[in-house]
Amino acid sequence: MTGVALAEELLLLAYDDETGKATMPRISLDLGMAAAVLVELALAGRIAYADGSLAAVDPTPVGEPILDAVLARIADDTPHSPSSWVQRLRHGLRDRILGDLVARGVVRDVEETEMGFIVVHRYPAADPSVEEDSRRRLGEALADGQLPDERTAALATLVAVLRMEPTLGLTGEAAVDARRRLEEIAGGAGFSGNVSLDDSVVRPSVGLVVAALAQAVDQALGKRP
Asked: Which domain holds residue 35?
């Protein structure tokens, strides 16, 4: 994997650099990050989707604490559906990822008190270069008529599922066009079932995981019956 996990990329896109606050519903972000962690493990060849369930196929740690903890949990458990794993993993995941980003100097933890007794935390950007790389890759994918690499395609798919176009600074017709392009990327990559995995840019094992997780997140958010 790269130095930045997909779940971290989603979180950084979703948090305002200046205010340090989430710009989208937190339940959506939590579900998306849980799915992103599982996608990351699929990209690393550690889990696979078969017979309606996700299961570990290689328990070897990848060297990233959050991912390795999830991998160990999956390896020690019986197989569960993508929907089940997304719900199981979303609780507390955002706080763990934020803590890791703070420790690495990517965001700052600003503690404040509201109404005299309510303690809140904001996470403004400390090193914007990390998020800038994610935005650059997505921007190139939106502008280019070609399919991006499987990692960027997976990120684009998650952004589409979570309807995160506003976090890219797009509104109106630009947001509509971006969503159309994001869905084209997802379909062309083989993540939505519209294209044969033989013709996609992703490995079949990864494509199956992403497609199943995208559907699980959609269902959890009530976007599909």
From this structure: 6-220
Does residue 96 lie in a domain region?
yes
H-helix or E-strand containing 118? Answer: strand 118-122
Q: Which of 19-28, 73-82, 135-144, 167-176 has the lowest mean pLDDT?
A: 167-176
Secondary structure class of 187 (helix, strand, coil):
helix
CA–CA gap between residue 89 and residue 35 (Å, rounded): 9
Backbone angles phi, psi at 111, to 5 degrees: -95, 130
Q: Is the pLDDT of residue 6 over 70?
A: yes
Token digits for 152?
């960027």
Residue 225 domain-assigned?
A: no
CB 175 within 8 A of CB 166: yes
pLDDT tens digit sequence for 130-180: 899 999 999 998 887 777 888 898 899 899 888 888 888 888 888 888 888
Q: How many CB atoms lie within 10 A of CB 59?
A: 13
* Residue 103 CB burial class (10 angstroms; 0-12, 13-18, ≥19): exposed
Tell me the C-alpha distance between 220 and 222, whole Å. 5
The C-alpha atoms of residue 176 and residue 181 are separated, in whole angstroms, by 9
Maximum Cα interatomic distance, the chain, rounded to a whole number of Å: 59
Tell me how far apart the alpha carbons of residues 211 and 197 are, in angstroms, rounded to a whole number. 11
